[in-house]
C-alpha cells in the first residue's frame, strides 16, 4: 500500500484538527510497515501506583490506528472507530514513554481493521495489544 501521509504530515494534521493531543502524542514513523506513535508520559497519564492509566494506553492505540489509516487514505478527519478491543498484558514501566507499533490488517472502501502493540520505551515485551475497526466516510 502506498503511503499518502508521512510522519510530518500526520503530526501537522493532528496539530490542526486535534490540538488537544498534539502535546502528548506524536507519530514517529509512517512507512510501508505501519506507524510508530509515542505517548510522552507525564503526570496526567498516571494512575495510583505510578503506572500509566488504561485510558491513556487506549488513546495511544486509537491515535496510532487512526494515523495508520490516514497514512494510506489521506486527511479524512471523519473516519471513526466502530469497534475496539484492548488487552492489558503487563504493567508499563514507570517513568517511560509508551510506543505503539501499528499495522493495517485490512483497508477497504468503508472499513479498516488494524492492530497496535504498545511497549514501554526501551522494553521488549508488549504491555498491551489493541485491535480496532474504523468506518471510513464516503468520498
What's the gist of this structure?
This protein has two helices and eight strands, in the order H-E-E-E-E-H-E-E-E-E. It has helices spanning 7-17, 54-73; strands at 25-31, 34-39, 46-47, 51-52, 80-88, 98-107, 111-120, 128-135.
List keywords for this structure.
22% helix, 6-stranded antiparallel β-sheet, alpha+beta, 139 residues, Thiol Ester Dehydrase, Chain A, 2 helices, two-stranded antiparallel sheet, single chain
Overview of the structural elements:
- It is a single chain.
- It is built from two helices and eight strands; from the N terminus they run αββββαββββ.
- With 139 residues, it is of the alpha+beta class.
- The chain has one domain (7-135): Thiol Ester Dehydrase, Chain A (Roll), CATH 3.10.129.10.
- The strands form two sheets. The protein has a six-stranded antiparallel beta sheet with strand order 1-2-6-7-8-5.
Amino acid at each position: 500500500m502506498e503511503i499518502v501521509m508521512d510522519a510530518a504530515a500526520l503530526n501537522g494534521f493532528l496539530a490542526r484538527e486535534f490540538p488537544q493531543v498534539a502535546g502528548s502524542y506524536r507519530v514517529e514513523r509512517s512507512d510501508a510497515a505501519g506507524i510508530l506513535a509515542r505517548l510522552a508520559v507525564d503526570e496526567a497519564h498516571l494512575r495510583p501506583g505510578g503506572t500509566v492509566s488504561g485510558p491513556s494506553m487506549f488513546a495511544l492505540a486509537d491515535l496510532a490506528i487512526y494515523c495508520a489509516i490516514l497514512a494510506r487514505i489521506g486527511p479524512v478527519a471523519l473516519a471513526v472507530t466502530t469497534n475496539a478491543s484492548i488487552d492489558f498484558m503487563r504493567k508499563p514501566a514507570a517513568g517511560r514513554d509508551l510506543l505503539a507499533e501499528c499495522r493495517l490488517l485490512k483497508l477497504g472502501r468503508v472499513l479498516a481493521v488494524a492492530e497496535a502493540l504498545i511497549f514501554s520505551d526501551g522494553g521488549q515485551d508488549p504491555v498491551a495489544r489493541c485491535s480496532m475497526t474504523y468506518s471510513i466516510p464516503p468520498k
